[in-house]
Amino acid sequence: MSTDQKYIYENDCNSDENRNKGSSRWSQCRKRGADGSLRKSQAVEELGKCSQSTHRPESFTTPESEGPVSRVKNWGDEVEAEEMRSNVRRDTHRYRRRILEADFPQRDRKISSGSSDSRDSRDSKESPAKGDMESDEATLIRRQKQINYGKNTLAYDRYIKEVPKHMRQPGVHPKTPNKFKKYSRRSWDQQIKLWRVRLHTWDPPAEEGCDVQQIEEINLGEIMDFEFDVEYSGDTEYLCPTSSGASLALAEDSFTGTSKKMMKIEDTEMS
Amino acid sequence: MENSSKEEYKIQSFDLETQKLLKTALKDPGSVDLEKVSNVIVDQSLKDQNFSREAGRICYTIVQAEAKQTNGNVFRRNLLNRLQQEFKAREETRKRSTQEWVCLVSFICNIFDYLKVNNMPMMALVHPVYDCLFRLAQSDALQNEEEVDCLVLQLHRIGDQLEKMNMQLMDELFNLLRDGFLLQEDLSSMGRLLLLEILEFRAGGWTLSETAQKYYYSEVTD
């Protein structure tokens, strides 16, 4: 059985590894054709084996393993990965259209840095050509996952209910980082962290002292907001991020288990 | 309202308690054990032929409801993984019970038909579905009317979609069917008729011409 596919793993992301503990851990696997063009990227099961699109038997034996190793990934993960990819592609098309629209007829539009127009006129200034836009699919998918973690929180829900998009004031109201802009890896990760920290302002009500501490806390990369809710329900020892230490599960995966929004439903039922 | 949703999702064959569970899952997915719901549905699809052909609908609705309510994917993920297990064990299932095997195929194909991802069929299921159909096109299966019937039903329902996803495999499949029709001696005449019809169906662009329709589907008069 020839296994002549080359797989390139995305292993350059610390926060991904920290986040993806537990059985739902998966990393992006990218296949390239011989000419370097991107093929569909797929979710990888824990063994890290990728399957591929041609018709092949389900199992094979690799020299280093003890017996037949299943090449088939689990369908749940595969479909989620498909969904993520197609969402990102759709977003990419929309964004490109938006950029083109912004570029062309609107020459006389005032481009002010204070603009909070959802079209973000600065986009057109900074990425006049499509080539200036981040278009690498694996990167976009990774960034989207990070954005999803942030959006899948009660804090974000409360934030968008409280402040409609058109009412947002730059500097005051956090803005979701734009995954289509070119940034270095560090720059992007830092933006995400800061964004997540700022979102904590809208965390559901807690003990007074802790709110302040949350915002001052820098290293909140992997906090799951719903942990706070669980703590809050009756527990007087309301713990702030770092003091909870190990109890903060870092398996942030917005795709498995009941999401944080579930807690909201339970919350309303309790009150 | 009660009965129409029973009708719509074909859940009459479940016991009352399970029907209740399903109805709750449709309205308030966050409040039920979705893994259990998915197991209940798969179990029933393997037993009940009618349900296996229609279960996709209720699954789709639950998936949508969960996505809307909690932004979650628990039901779909559990459903698919359970389905994958059953798929892996399909050969044993076929040996044990032809009925269960054809139910499994119908169910997988129905899921393929209904559970779309951003309006596109799930790519992950394309090869598994083809695997099932290829199995049904083997000579031992073609002898068996129940299996031929299942095969042609699926091709009627999702053949065109499958072909779009992979033309080459569909060509290969139909080569097998053509060979079976022409060369296999132990086919029943009904089996042969079914094969002929599906061959014409695809040749006509996944539809039957009027004359063919008359030939295959009108009452035979004395």
TrEMBL record, chain A:
Protein name: Histone RNA hairpin-binding protein-like isoform X1
Start-end of Polar residues biased regions: 50-64
UniProt feature coiled coil, ranges: none
Family: Belongs to the SLBP family.
Keyword annotations of the record: RNA-binding
Region listing for Disordered, in residue ranges: 1-87, 99-139
Gene Ontology CC terms, in alphabetical order: cytoplasm; histone pre-mRNA 3'end processing complex
UniProt cross-references to PANTHER family, sorted A to Z: HISTONE RNA HAIRPIN-BINDING PROTEIN (PTHR17408:SF7)
Basic and acidic residues bias spans: 32-48, 99-133
Single GO MF descriptor: histone pre-mRNA stem-loop binding
Matching Pfam families: SLBP_RNA_bind
GO BP term, pick one: mRNA transport
Limits of the Histone RNA hairpin-binding protein RNA-binding domain: 136-204
Automatic annotation (TrEMBL), chain B:
GO molecular function: identical protein binding; RNA binding; translation activator activity
Pfam families named in the record: MIF4G
Record GO biological process: regulation of translational initiation
Cell compartment(s), UniProt: Cytoplasm; Nucleus
Chief location bin: cytoplasm
Keyword annotations from UniProtKB, A to Z: Cytoplasm, Nucleus, Translation regulation
Positions of the MIF4G domain: 3-205
Assigned GO CC terms: cytosol; histone mRNA stem-loop binding complex; nucleus
Function: Functions in replication-dependent translation of histone mRNAs which differ from other eukaryotic mRNAs in that they do not end with a poly-A tail but a stem-loop. May participate in circularizing those mRNAs specifically enhancing their translation.
Self-association and partners: Interacts with EIF4G1, EIF4G2 and SLBP; probably tethered by SLBP to the 3'-end of mRNAs ending with the histone stem-loop, it also interacts with EIF4G1 which is bound to their 5'-end.
Name assigned to this protein: MIF4G domain-containing protein B
Record organism: Carassius auratus
